[in-house]
From TrEMBL:
BP term (GO), one: cellular response to nitric oxide
GO molecular function: cyclic-guanylate-specific phosphodiesterase activity
Key words, A-Z: c-di-GMP, Coiled coil
Biological classification of the source: Bacteria, Pseudomonadati, Pseudomonadota, Gammaproteobacteria, Chromatiales
Organism listed in the record: Thiocapsa imhoffii
Protein's name according to its UniProt entry: cyclic-guanylate-specific phosphodiesterase
Domain EAL, residue spans: 24-278
Source superkingdom: Bacteria
Length: 283
């Protein structure tokens, strides 16, 4: 790092730009070997029924623990992986690791109903996605409906026709589909009815100020009604407080996810906590 070399260190580039560019290049190079070096792992965040507080599933969130950079946020390394052509390998690893984890928990007598995985931006446009998902399911022996794939509106809007076809094929495969970060993209309501999704995840930007902005309550109420009228299960992301929880419960939201119920944590910690709790049997 230029900064660490002190002020007298000669640089032929401007320090401001160079730190970013050099850092970025080093991140890129480190990321190329991260899967092989076992630096990536998954964290798990609980999803909970708002009526009974019981565990309904979890979302798997990717973590990169680099010996030198420390823990790198997925918001930082997923876009890099996309740019340098690593995202296919990475998302296959995530899928496989998530399904394997669920099977391990089954064997340990902890039956988590469903595990959600985030699909990267243009994965939905790739011709072999359905085949890859099918392959992972076959290899791990996991029942398709227990794998949930999260997609965003912006992913779908890039190439709507391809996305609709792929979602239909995934639906036929039996996997559960969720629309993530709902309300932040710019899809129109007419598109929503054509998408074969099962679950709607209300983005946490609407949840964050629920307790002091009535407009967010209005938007959330509408999203819940919309989801329900399309036959979808509605889940709110980013619930951090009792007050947010109570409002969402009152508004009839089905499920919640957020620090209030549990932060994303390692497989071991997730098991230790949640395998002791009752699990809802109906899904
Ligand atoms: P996301 O799918 O919307 O995931 C939810 C994010 O919100 C996670 O951040 C989670 O840690 C955070 N979160 C959950 N509850 C709360 C809360 O109560 N308060 C606040 N402030 N935050 C909360 P994370 O793990 O940093 O992931 C960020 C994004 O990176 C994810 O957003 C997802 O889009 C992406 N991502 C994570 N893992 C993967 C992966 O394996 N593959 C792909 N393609 N993308 C991933
Ligand atoms: Mg997600
Ligand atoms: Mg989200
Ligand atoms: Mg997000």
């Amino acid at each position: 790092r230029a900064k660490e070399h002190g002020r007298n260190h000669y640089c032929f580039y401007t320090p401001e730009m160079s730190v970013g560019a050099v850092e970025r290049l080093r991140l890129e190079n480190a990321l190329r070997g991260a899967v092989a070096r076992h630096e990536l792992h998954l964290h798990f965040q609980p999803q909970v029924g708002l009526r009974d507080g019981q565990l309904t599933g979890a979302e798997a969130l990717c973590r990169w623990e680099h010996p030198e950079f420390g823990s790198v946020s997925p918001e930082q390394f997923i876009p890099i992986a996309e740019e340098i052509g690593l995202i296919g390998e990475l998302s296959t690893w995530v899928l496989h690791t998530a399904c394997t984890q669920l099977m391990h928990w089954d064997e340990a007598g902890f039956r988590l109903a469903r595990l959600a995985v985030n699909l990267p931006m243009n994965e939905i446009e790739k011709a072999d996605l359905v085949e890859r998902v099918q392959h992972v399911l076959r290899r791990t022996g996991l029942e398709a409906s227990r794998l949930e794939l999260e997609i965003t509106e912006s992913m779908i809007m890039r190439r709507l026709d391809v996305a609709i076809t792929t979602l239909q094929a995934l639906h036929e495969l039996g996997v559960t589909l969720a629309l993530d970060d709902f309300g932040t993209g710019h899809s129109s309501l007419s598109h929503l009815k054509r998408l074969r999704v099962d679950r709607l995840k209300i983005d946490r930007s609407f949840v964050a100020r629920l307790d002091d902005d009535p407009r967010d309550v209005a938007i959330t109420r509408t999203a819940i009604a919309l989801g329900h009228s399309l036959g979808l299960v509605v889940i709110a992301e980013g619930i951090e407080s009792q007050a947010q929880f109570e409002i969402l419960h009152r508004e009839g939201c089905d499920e919640g996810q957020g620090y209030f119920f549990g932060k994303p944590c390692s497989a071991g910690a997730f098991f230790a906590h949640w395998s002791q709790q009752p699990i809802r049997a109906d899904r």
